[in-house]
Amino acid sequence: MPRHFLTGEELSPSELAALLDRAAELKADPLASDALARRTVALIFQAASTRTRVSFEAGIAELGGHPMVLHADELQLSRGESIGDTARVLSRHVAAVGVRTGPDALLNELAQHADIPVFNMLTAGHHPCQALADLLTLRETFGKLSGLKLAYVGDGNNVARSLAILGAAAAVEVRVAAPAAYQLESVAGVILTDDPRAAVAGADAVYTDVWVSMSDDPATAAQRRQALERYRIDDQLLDLAAPHAIALHCLPAHPGEEITAEVLYGPRQRIWDQAENRRHVQKALLEHLLVGAG
């Protein structure tokens, strides 16, 4: 059976720790592995992308492989071919396939019918590759993960969910502060509150994401911004965290909305390290998924 990476729950704590160790090695020596030599990895994009596309394409090339970028409107999916048949065809030609889409059901169905690893580059429900990069960034900053406290403030979305799932596997305490209408469900021991100040108090990292995502209804954008107004990361909120605390953001950012420009570009953030670390953890993930694959 192929290994898949759909939500992050597929990784045990020991596998997660080993993957982060390997990511650190690959960051120190980006051309150390040719695990994908003469192999092709398909990357299906049904949603716009900067970091995901750049980091996966560059990372696959550094591993010696060929990234085959496919857009939904270029595939027969757009003309009614089933997801199952698409999975069967891809399984005959490529070593693995990543999907950046909306519905989790599409990713899950592809994995159900594929004979190759399927990995989640982003869905409406989960963004596990981002959470891997976040954990590597935290470990680089603090030298450990176990016992750290991460406060996520804003919309309890796919990023928050993946942070909760993978944070729990790494023994990181994840707190999510969001209004009731935008709050995450109780998952993986996450601490939920509607008070951003309470969530941030004493935290080692303070994290946010955009208030209006690609999958959100544009008609509700103004309502969402009003509801999330007091969840902005600014210097005053960050001051409530631990003295050594860092600000994190998965990007793209809208300075002045969910984060101020002073924090986004200031000395107390590791946001651009997060963006780089996507490549390194994804390379380690691809090695993990393809170990033993012929």
Sheet-strand content, in percent, reads: 5-15%
- What global shape is seen? globular
Strand order of the largest sheet: 7-6-5-8-9
Order of helices and strands: HEHEHEHEHEHEEHEHHEHH
| Distinct helical segment count | 11
| N- and C-termini, Cα separation | 13 Å
What secondary-structure arrangement, pairings included, does this model have?
Blueprint: H1 13-28, E1 40-45, H2 51-62, E2 66-71, H3 83-91, E3 96-100, H4 104-113, E4 118-122, H5 128-142, E5 149-153, H6 158-169, E6 173-177, E7 191-193, H7 196-200, E8 205-208, H8 221-227, H9 235-238, E9 246-249, H10 261-264, H11 271-290
Parallel strand pairs: 1-2, 1-3, 3-4, 5-6, 5-8, 6-7, 8-9
Helix pairs in contact: 1-11, 2-11, 3-4, 5-6, 5-11
Task: Give your account of this protein's structure.
The chain has 294 residues and is of the alpha/beta class. The chain contains 11 helices and 9 strands. The protein has helices at 13-28, 51-62, 83-91, 104-113, 128-142, 158-169, 196-200, 221-227, 235-238, 261-264, 271-290; strands at 40-45, 66-71, 96-100, 118-122, 149-153, 173-177, 191-193, 205-208, 246-249. β5, α6 (158-169) and β6 (173-177) form a beta-alpha-beta unit. α1 (13-28) crosses α11.
